[in-house]
Write a structure and sequence with these properties.
The chain has 44 helices and 5 strands. By secondary structure, the protein is an all-alpha fold. Among the domains are: 199 residues, no CATH class; 97 residues, Serine Threonine Protein Phosphatase 5, Tetratricopeptide repeat (Alpha Horseshoe), CATH 1.25.40.10. The radius of gyration is 34 Å and the shape is globular.
Length: 837
Amino acid sequence: MAAGLARADELDDCLKLYLRGNYPEAIKVAEKAVAANEYDEEWRRLLVRALLDTGQYVKAQETIVNAISRYPTSIRMRLLGHEVFLANGNAERARTMLREINALAGSRTWAYTDPPNLVALGRAALLMGAEPKLVLDNFFERARQRAPELRDTHLAFTELALSKGDFELAAKSANEGLKKLPEDPDLHHALARAWQPSDRARMGKALDEALKHNTNHVPSLLLVADHLIDAEEYQEAGELLDRAMRVNPWSPDAWAYRAVIAHLRNDGDGEQAARENSLKFWTNNPAPLHLLGRKLSAKYRFTEGAACQRQALVFDPNFIPAKIQLAQDLLRIGEETEGWRLVKEVHEADGYDVLAYNLTTLQENWSRLQSLTNEHFVVRMSPHEAKVYGGRVLELLERARKVLVEKYGAQLADPTYVEIFPQQRDFAMRTFGELGGIGYLGVCFGRLITANSPASTAHGNVNWESVLWHEFCHVVTLQMTRNKMPRWLSEGISVHEELQANPAWGQSMTPRYREMILSGELTPISELSAAFLTAKSGEHLQFAYYQSALAVEFITAKHGHEALKKILRDLGDGVAINAAIARHTMPIEKLDEAFAAFAKEKAEKLAPALDFEKLDMKEALALPLAEVFTKHPKNFWVLTQQAKRAMAQKQWEDAKKPLLKLIELYPAHVEGDNAYALLAEVCRQLGETDKEREVLEQLASRSADAADAYLRLMELNEAKADWKGVQTNARRFLAVNPLQPQPYRHLAKASEAAGKAEDAIGAYRTMLLLDPPDPAGVHFGLAKLLHAKKDAEAHEHVLRALEEAPRFREAHRLLLEINSAKKPVNQQFSPPVPSVK
């Protein structure tokens, strides 16, 4: 008995060596136990596991063959054998393992009811195509209830959720396992994978935990490398791969990542060598090529990524991950017929695949979109929105194409596809394959743009014209570089070009950005792409966009627009970003240094007469209003809060002074509760209509999304018969929300006043599509204009006006006038013919 306990302790110690990453010592101890003919099969399983993790695939196969012979009824040994034979490229022998497991389970069911065997049976059932829900209920759940601390159960639960794309369930399962096994590196790694799509910060913490408990944990090292590749930190990623390959020199995934880096560095020979090494032992393994293709697609190399998935499917036509990734790639490069067919195939083969389910759900809504086309664009929108503002979309895109193609000397493949979704969930599923993406307004894949329509309320007021201009700029730069550009440069140019098209678009320096730059949060140009991945908040993500645009402004200011174009051309030829920048500007180290100085100077010049120091606001606000200019005459934060306090107390005149001072010293500030909006409200309360109008016009000329200001200006300008002002602000409003009837009513009146009947008719017709609050008035206005043109349709609209408002006297008079006009004219009088009696 004592000897048995001692051997159990030795096995437990060996498992600890393995989990801590001391694989050589674990192999040594396990081999010694096997040589001593220890009976417990866990010694041989542990030895095989350690051999696999260190890339000793041939030796692992020899060991598993002997182990299966020794344990002829062990399904757990055969399940491990399935993995070992695949690692050695012996697919038929691997399938034999599954058939033998199935036969044993059928003939000796009673022998496999303990938790470890239940988990093994469940894993084998999944490999043989069993329904996941049945496996969860009949195997994994039963095992968990009987042995809550069994690590195999928690890993099986989590890995199943990960394989189906259910990351929320995967995170929950991994966390439950970590409550029992807080030092298990495999569970920490599984948790990191669950957080990877949505929260890189949490992913990083989970990986830190995994590597704290096992510094040689290859899957975790590879996931860190994966993250670094996303951040375009290829040298650091390569160092992580070196570290992983010192543990397992033949890891297929590690070689696939090496192929990714080689491809992104335009190293064709290196990529080919890495591909070959990823398939050294298993020559038709679809997984490395799928991984390579997936990472290339993440870099917008969709054509190259699709080619990798096609090759993976040659190796295994039923490899679901490659098939669904290929479907996404094809949908993003315009090959939609095949893309949707593959989505359907995946969903039919695996109804539990979350991505395939989401895309299948999306397809029905996507198929209802209406296509608007011209020579250069295919725009897909909801039929309703297409009628309302589809023409404006095409007009905006054509204008962007004319300006940007000429400016960058680009040659684009036609057409560009633009899909505008009225439901944010449809946008998210089309763009990301899953719900989420709340912070995104639009995304460009090279020839495809996806965007939220103004009907989506997820983002509040957003200028859709600036969004489409931004995304079309991506079309230009991505095609110029053949998608070989870092994210910061792509985003920076697009934000920069927004500002060039309209100074109210894009992003400008703000007090918060000023604070972040001066406090040392500016990211060097050489690390800007990482700023998008590691953003701590939505605010930091927006700051990444601003910094990128600032970097482009810096490059063009110091070296000219031609230098930027040359950098883009070099990137298209495969030149690395730092080399391309150095060739046309300065070495990257000096560029980082000069950029930091440029950004600091720009931050310091923001409203230099204002004081942006953040004071103790409680103390400052305790001052009587009269003392604010004495103690804090120019503090941005105090002036703003003092004005708000005066307004809250309805002390309108007292609120004027700080607001006027803010506008005087910082006229460019239009974010949030800006001084313009507050002062306009003060003027309105005081009845100073002309001053209100003046202040709102200043705001409207500087802000791209001040919809309330635009609407109020339409009302004020209409009262003044300033029809040009009405039209200007109606157009501004429509760039934010073209789905509201109010601006069309103002446009109709302004057009009528200007004698532009056709424009007024168009505005009235659009209003009727938008459920206007006064449909009778709209029909009547349209009827008047049509009658003036002698258009017979006037009769229909005046009748509709009366249907809505039967006592509408003007409509009655117009109806009589229309009916009178219908009577024949120019008929000669004919006397009656007398009857003959």
